[in-house]
Amino acid sequence: MNHIILEAKNITKSFGSIHALKNVDFYLYESKIHGLLGENGAGKSSLMNILSGIYQPEVGSIHINGNKVKKLNPDFASKLGIGMVHQEFRLINNFSIQDNLTLSKANIYTDNFKEGYEKYSDIFSLSADPSTPISELSVGEKQKIEIMKLIFNNNKIMLLDEPTAVLTPQETNQLKISLKKLSNEDNKTIVLITHKLKEIQEFTESIFVLKDGVMVAKDLETKNVTKNDLITLMMGEIKQSDISKDNKKGTEKLIVENIYFENMHSNVPTLNNISLKIRSGEILGLAGVSGNGQVELANIISGIERQYTGQVIVNGKNISNQGVKVRKNLNLSYIPENRLGVGLAPGVSIIDNSAVKDYFKSKFGPHLSTNKMLDYLNLLITQFSIKAPDPKAEVSTLSGGNMQKLLMGRELISNPEVIIAAQPTRGLDINAVEALHDLIVKQRNNGSAIMLISEDLDELFKLSDRIIVLYEGQIVKEFAIEEADIENVGLAMAGLNE
Amino acid sequence: MNKYLLSKKLIINELSTFYSFLIGLSIGITIGSIILLTQGQNPIEVFSLMLKLSIGSVKSISSSLNKATPLILAGLGISIINSVKLWNIGAEGQIFMGGIALNFIYISSEISNPNLMIIFLLSSSFIGGAVCILFPAIAKVLFGVNEIITTLLFNYIVIGLTVYLVNGPWKDPGSLNFPAAAYVSKEVYLPTVFGRLSYGFVICILCTLGVHYLKEKSVFGYELRIAGGSALTAIYAGINAKQKAFVAMLIGGGLAGLAGGVELLSQTHRVSTGLSQGFGYTAIIVAAITGMRPFGIFLVGSLFGALTIGGSVIQTMGVSSYISDVIQATTLFGALIAQFFFTYKIIRVSEDV
Questions:
Q1: Which of B230, B232, B243, B345 to mutate to probe the A interface, most A CBs <10 Å?
Q2: How far, in Å, CA of A261 to CA of A259, rounded?
Q3: Inter-chain contact A342–B236, Cβ cutoff 8 Å?
Q4: Tens-digit pLDDT profile for residues A139-198
Q5: 3-state SS class at A450
Q6: Does any CB of chain A come closer than 8 Å to the CB of residue B221?
Q7: pTM of the predicted model, to two decimals?
Q8: Chain A residues whose beta carbon lies within 8 Å of the beta carbon of residue B219
Q9: What digits encode the pLDDT tens for the residues A371-394?
Q10: A45 in a domain, yes or no?
């Protein structure tokens, strides 16, 4: 049995009123690979940031080799041998591999760089010469350099935050082999943070599961747990929906056919062969871990992204090559995932933000009349009970819930034919969530065709009539709501189809 | 342990810009007074003389307003560009370019109808200013090159061009070797309204109203505000943010060019390196003090015009005219600091949880 090299006891951390971590215990065995599993927002990154000294926990202690560590900062954590690879690379692009690896003062391979580089480039099967600048490497190679940087800085405990998110399946497989070698032959202790079940099962020996800031499972032996166990742990139980699903469905209002979209920066399609139909009075839930093409699909339907192939038909009109305004005139509403920054312009007044959907329409007069805009804003404020003390104040002075009500109100007041709502309730408190859910259901009953993009399965199960699952840019499953259960939706989201 | 943080105030007094201007102005006058005292002058005497000589008579008021005209026009140009949160530091160069374009058209065409010719010449100065900002605008929208740097650097290019023209091809043989182009014909001088007040000031009033409409009441101005707030929101709203920014930059550059044209036809009557006396830079101060509001630019520009006139005449008392520059600069400084305290509050947060 390996001894415990690092132990975090009873860690609590909150940001404002939100508890990111609640009394979390976490421990690592020397030279083992551990998996830390959890949905987005479960607290994985917060925990890792605490271990690497970036955040200070409010409660709890960290012990290394049994000795309590007083106050951790990134420098001190690195001296104790804890290193982290962040999701975004922290390499200097126009420096060579060697310069990047030996940049830190903690580096232990200054004199015998060649020897060290040979040893580890072999483990990582990296063929690049150390004088190659980082900018010439592929994403997979950069990832390897990031991990090697930890080794060169003498970090024996390596925290890897979603290392496979940017890798191809082949690169992922290679990373697995390299990490196993590092733990077996080089005594490295590794933590793999992920929400991908397949990887956690293949890579790790021991699994921890975080859910809503609570460690719901500790030190599970990987070979003894099934995928279904992990999904239930990670996602929890789904509450019974209290919303009637006997809504009348009418004609097909949104038809999307054979969408294919390739992002400029990648060679794998972001969306592939997407076809779907939504009828009036129907809510289609789009499930999927974020980054599987949801944002791109919403942008294509709403006319923001126009470099794609395929058809978008709204209310019988083919608008595939049309821009945003044409869709607005067909009364399509889009509630984007990024509410402040996309849906609302920060630094601009509440009153200006309230007119973003219809500002070019005649209801504000040929010359944008401040009074008419104010009337419109007041209508939104009363109808959607928004708390906005000063209409001329910047929109960022509103609370998150009121911002979202303003955004949703603006997009819904015209009783739209089609609504695309992306993560409409993310990060909001329970009362705001309830109010926004009521709005969506009311709009459904008014005959809108609604596409609800969400990572929150509770929300999807509560509101949707049908659920489709998007994985790596493809629709991998479709469920009528009565057939859907947490296990098969969860498995599909993880890319595991029987 | 306590920490101090800055936090944006939820509700900002609508008149805060005006109050900060008053605060800034009193700081400027106080500092100006201290300097005068150290020079052995009586500030009250100096300031009352400045007041008398700048607004004491119809003649002096009209001189002050003539001085204000290029400040206001260039300030309006800066303000419209700032709607998209871009800074035009190149108004000085655009003023010269406006004058150069005007003179170029003037020497290459015949005067048949003087009034039409004036309109034609002023339009060419507008276009000249727009051409002057064309390269920075293209570089901004196509490659994201920082417009502060490019517009600033263009000042040097245009001033170099002016020096070349007035010493070379355009040099007036009758100028007694003074580097300047020939005077334009009296027929195309801007007429005066009363006293010495040129019709340039009327143009200035019209432009103030026009820019106010464009910024506050038009769909174009709305689109500029959204694009300035967030490029992503603009795309989401179906606004072509880059195109709007491009057009705004051309209009703003054009207004500064027009300032040069008006100055040439009403005051200097020829192209020389003295066409602008730093109007393009003072206009930045004017626009910044007023929070880019067109009516504010009109008022503060007029005041700064009066200050400049007042400053230049007190030289006869043996006081340096730079006192008015000092007051202008410290007013900006004071107003910006005051604005900061109107916009932010300092809050104390305790660190223990």
A1: B230
A2: 6
A3: yes
A4: 888 889 999 999 999 999 999 988 887 777 778 888 999 999 999 988 999 999 887 788
A5: strand
A6: yes
A7: 0.78
A8: 359-360, 368
A9: 889 999 999 999 998 888 788 888
A10: yes
